[in-house]
Design goal:
6-stranded mixed beta sheet, 4-stranded antiparallel beta sheet
Length: 264
């Protein structure tokens, strides 16, 4: 029997309800995510991708339906409550770290996420030694810059650090919201490879929104395409590995109508 980490049952979210600008962002949406799944999510602008992540993270309240995380009904939970279960990496590299704090302080804050903290939560000698070892994984030399302010790092360095921070106190769900879109292609490729390694090694249940169809096919074990708040395509395993961008465009080109996706 499948072990679901996340289940959305009949979730609907309508913006500007009852007005001429009414938008049904999620339309009776249902999705079951098994523990350890790495799902890539694609769809045109306005398909409901960001609203889906917002609903799971508790930053928007849904109009109907149910959201279950780790067998617990979290439908009415707010984002500060969902922080116990969910880590999220945003498009902007500045959103996942505190720029005025040092690298070691950011790591310590991530490690203590969801735990009770006293007045002595600071970086201890033993933590500092461990952070040096952990940072070596990134191969960016950050292990020698522990006391440097994170705000002085490049965008790629900050996103890499943010990803590493999610593994210090592994979340039930990792939400990646176009987390490489603001990076140059070379840096984005490195961050994506790092993402793939960390997700697999830590068996993190992950949803990754991307506007790059090649990335959606290359990474993860499952791909979901959204259109007008509903699932248009849900493919996984060997079937996903054999699928090509050309085949998707041939079948769903009219549905996608997104220059970013179609140009990939």
């Amino acid at each position: 029997m499948a072990e679901y980490m996340l289940a959305l049952n009949g979730v609907t979210k309508i913006f500007n309800k009852g007005t001429q600008d009414e938008k049904r962002a999620l339309d009776n949406f249902s999705l079951e995510v098994e523990k350890g799944d790495f799902i890539t999510i694609i769809g045109s602008n306005g398909a409901g991708k960001t609203t889906l992540l917002n609903a799971i993270a508790g930053t928007v309240e849904t109009d109907q339906g149910q959201i279950i995380v780790n067998d617990q009904d979290v439908t009415k939970w707010h984002d500060f409550q969902m922080a116990r279960f969910v880590s999220r990496v945003f498009q902007s590299p500045t959103m996942g770290t505190a720029g005025e704090m040092t690298i070691e302080e950011n790591l310590c804050m991530a490690e203590l996420r969801g735990k009770r903290r006293g007045l002595k939560w600071g970086v201890t000698k033993s933590r500092r030694l461990r952070y040096k070892e952990v940072l070596k994984v990134l191969d960016l030399g950050l292990e020698e810059r522990l006391k440097q302010a994170v705000g002085l790092l490049s965008g790629g360095q900050r996103q890499s650090l943010t990803l590493l921070m999610t593994t210090l106190a592994p979340p039930k769900l990792l939400l990646l919201d176009e987390h490489t879109a603001a990076l140059d292609p070379r840096t984005a490729s490195k961050v994506l490879d790092l993402t793939d390694t960390m997700v697999r090694e830590n068996r993190l249940t992950t949803l990754m929104v991307t506007h790059n169809m090649n990335h959606a096919l290359k990474y993860g074990n499952r791909m979901v395409m959204l259109h007008q708040g509903r699932i248009q395509l849900d493919i996984q395993g060997d079937e996903k590995k054999k699928l090509t961008v050309a085949e998707i465009v041939a079948k769903f080109g009219q549905t996608l109508k997104d220059e970013t996706l179609l140009s990939c």
